[in-house]
Amino acid sequence: MDTATFLSFGTDRTKVYPPNFDILVFPKNTKEVAQLVKFAYDNDLKIVPSGGRTGYAGGAVARNGEIVISLVKMDQVLDFDPFFGSLKVQAGMITKNLHKEAEDRGFYFPVDFSSTGSSHIGGNIATNAGGVRVVHYGLIRQWVLGLTVVTGTGEILEFNGEILKNNTGYDLKHLFIGSEGTLGIITECTLKLTSKPSDNRVLFSAVPDFSSILELFKETHNVKVPLLAFEFLTRYCLEKVIDHLHVPDAFPEKSPYYVLMEFEIMDERDEEKLFSFLETVVEKGLVSDGSLASNSRQAETFWKYREGISESISIDYTVHKNDISLPLRNMNSFLEDMQALLNSKYPGFEIALFGHIGDGNLHLNIVKPKGLSDAEFFSQCKSVDPSMFELLQKHHGSISAEHGIGLLKRDFLHFSRTDAELEIMRQIKKTLDPKNLLNPGKVLLESK
Amino acid sequence: MDTATFLSFGTDRTKVYPPNFDILVFPKNTKEVAQLVKFAYDNDLKIVPSGGRTGYAGGAVARNGEIVISLVKMDQVLDFDPFFGSLKVQAGMITKNLHKEAEDRGFYFPVDFSSTGSSHIGGNIATNAGGVRVVHYGLIRQWVLGLTVVTGTGEILEFNGEILKNNTGYDLKHLFIGSEGTLGIITECTLKLTSKPSDNRVLFSAVPDFSSILELFKETHNVKVPLLAFEFLTRYCLEKVIDHLHVPDAFPEKSPYYVLMEFEIMDERDEEKLFSFLETVVEKGLVSDGSLASNSRQAETFWKYREGISESISIDYTVHKNDISLPLRNMNSFLEDMQALLNSKYPGFEIALFGHIGDGNLHLNIVKPKGLSDAEFFSQCKSVDPSMFELLQKHHGSISAEHGIGLLKRDFLHFSRTDAELEIMRQIKKTLDPKNLLNPGKVLLESK
C-alpha cells in the first residue's frame, strides 16, 4: 500500500486536516474489533474508526497518531428476515451494496444520497445520515432496528436484536446513532427494509418568491400521492449548473427560485392527480411555470439541476459550505437577516442556496468573489460563521442538519446545544469511553 | 376532592400496588414543575409524575409517600407550524384532544390506541406508546420532534425545538422517550403531524395455521396499497368476544386463527387491488375465508373482534396479562415451546393469544382454569413468568413490547437487557437524577 492510500484511511472529504498516524488495522469481525479496543484500552492508545470516509466534518480524521480501525473488510450479510423484511449486515458494507442486497431479496432500503457508492452503512448510522428522500422516509435513525457496538473499554453491546417494539428501559441504541464514533464503534447493524416504490414522477417548477415555496410545500400535503422529495435551488445555482454541465435552461422565463418534487405513483390516475395539482398551484400563483417529466431522461435532467450544483460550483468556484436547518416558517426571516449581514460586512459575497427544503435543510454555500485570494476568503468566512450561527440560534435553527459536528463544527456546538446538554453529553461519553480513547477531540472538546 | 379521587392520581391500571402518598400538586407550566422539582431536590423529597394513568406496568404508582406531580392542568396548545405540520403542546394534553387539535388544523396525528380518551401525550412519550397502527406509522418515538423536560435537579432542558434534522452531538431526546419518568418530567412536546388517510378498508380473514399468518404478512408487502394494521387473534379469543359482546360469528366454518388487516385506500381501483389480493391469498391457501368490509358498520364489527378481546376476557374471566415481542420468524417456535411448558407444568392453563402481529407484538394472556382460586392462580403465574421470559430470551424476544417496565417487570429486566446495559442505564440515571428522586424504584432497581 502506498503512503497516499495508507493516509486516505485516516481522513475524509473535508480535506482541511492533514492525516498523521502510523497504525492501520483491518479487523474482520466484532470480536476482533473488541480485542483491538481492549488492547488500546490496556495501553492507553487512541483510536479513530474509519468507514467510507465520505464525511464533510472531519469526523474520520486521524491527525494525532491514533490507531485507525478500518471496517472495509467487514462487509458481509449476516442475516435476513423475509417476513418482517430486515437485514443484518456488518457495518463496513458499502451503502450501495446494501441497497442491492435488499433488492435481491425483494425489498428496498430507502436511505439514499450521492456518496452511497463509497460510504459505509456503519458510518451512515454513526452520523445519522439523511439524503434526498428524508421528507418521505426520514433519517437513517428510523431504519435501524438493532446495533452491535464496541465501547471504549472493548465491551461488546448488542442492542435490540431485530425486534420493532422493545420498551424495556432506556433506548441506548439511539445514543450511538449520530455519535460519530465517539461512544462506540458500530460493528454490526440490523436494518428495517420496506417495499420499493412502484414508479415515480419528477415535477420541476419555477417559483416566483420564497414564501411561495413554503405555500407550495403546504399544498403537497393534499395531493394524495406520496411525496418522495421536495428540493429547492435559486436561479444562481441553476445558472451555474447550466454553465458547467451544458444542460438547457428549464423554462423560457427566468425565475428566482425553483422546486423539484418527486412523487411515488402507482398508475395513470396518480399521474392525473399530479397534473391537476400542477394546475392548482399555477392558478394560485405559487408556481409560474412547471413541467412533469414525461420520460426518465427528462427526470434525469431535472435531478441534474439539483444534484449538479455541488459539483458545478466546487469545480468552477471557491466555496465555503454550510449545512444548516431551520423551522420552515423561520427560513425567510433568517435568509433576510443573513443577506443583510453579508451586504453590510461582505458586499462581494454571493450565496449559492439550495437543499432539502421539505426537511428545513439548506445548503448555504458562500462563493468567493473574484479578486479575493483563497486564504483571505476563508479567513473572512471564519468570521462570518459565528455571526451566521448566532442568526441560526435566534431563528431556532441548527448549525448542522446532516453533516454532523466532527472537528469542523466542534467549537461551535454551543450555538446548537446548551451548556447543560454539553455537560450531560460529557458524562455519557465518560460512561461509555472512560479513557477518552474513541475518536478523541471529535464532537466534544476534550474534557478539561 | 374525596380520598378515592385523590389516591387515583398516584396509581394506574395495573391495580396491584395500593397508592400511598399525601401531597398532590397541579403545576400549570414548565417553570412551576421546575420550581417543584428544585424544592424537592433541596429537601430530598421523592416525586412521581402523574399523567393519564392508563399504564399497565405500575409506572405511575406512588406508594412510598412521594409527591405526586399531576400534569392534568397542563393541557394547552403552545404553537403550530402550518408549513411543516407540527404542533407544540403541554404534556398533560389528553391524546384524543391532540388528535382533534391536529384535525382542526387540517392535519392528523397517527398514534392511536384504546386509552387515548384518558391518556396524556406526555405519558405516551414517557412510555413510547405504540397502538394499533404501528405497522404503518411506527411508535410515538418517531413523531416527537422536540421535548422540554425537567431533570432530577430541577433543570429545564429543551431538546431540538421543532426541526427535523439536527445532527449536533448525542440525541438526548431519545433517552427520555420511554424512560417512564425516571430521567426527567416531560412538560412540553413538539409533534410532527401527517395527512389524514383518505379512506380505509378492513379485511377480516380466517387463517388455517400459524405459519400462514407470517406468509400472509409477507404477501401484504406486494399489495401496493398502504397497510395500516395487521392484527391477529385465535379462535379462543373470537369465541370469548362472541359470547361477551353477542356479535355473530365471522365465517360459517371455524378457523384456528384470524387476521384483521386495515388498508388505506384512495379510490375504487385500490379496492379492486384488495379484492385481487384476497383472491391471491385464498388461492395460495393462506386464507380459508375472508371478507372485505362493505360499509363502516361491518368494519366496526371486524374491529370489535379484535378490540373487544381484552374487555371480554377480563370481565368474564381472571387473566394474567403479558405484552411481549419477538422476531416474526421465531414466533411459531416460541409459541410451541410456551405451549409445551404450560402442558407439562400447568395443564389447566389456557392462552388467549392476540396482538399486533405485524409488529411482532403478542398479547399473551393466561386464563385462570375453573376451580383454581385467584390467589393460587396468580401465585402459579408468578412462577410461569420467569420461565416464559427465559423462552423469550432464547428466541430473541422482549419481555415488554409496549407496556414498559414500571414496577411490574422491573425485577425481570435482566431477561431483556444485559448487566452491562443495566450499568450504563444506572450511570445515565445518576447523571440526570443524581439524588434518585424521580419516579424512584421504577424501571431500574434502586442503586445499591
UniProtKB/TrEMBL annotation, chains A, B:
One of its GO terms (biological process) is respiratory electron transport chain. Its cofactor is FAD. One of its GO terms (molecular function) is FAD binding. Pfam families: FAD-oxidase_C, FAD_binding_4. PANTHER family: D-2-HYDROXYGLUTARATE DEHYDROGENASE, MITOCHONDRIAL (PTHR43716:SF1). Belongs to the FAD-binding oxidoreductase/transferase type 4 family. This is Glycolate oxidase, subunit GlcD. It comes from Leptospira broomii serovar Hurstbridge str. 5399.
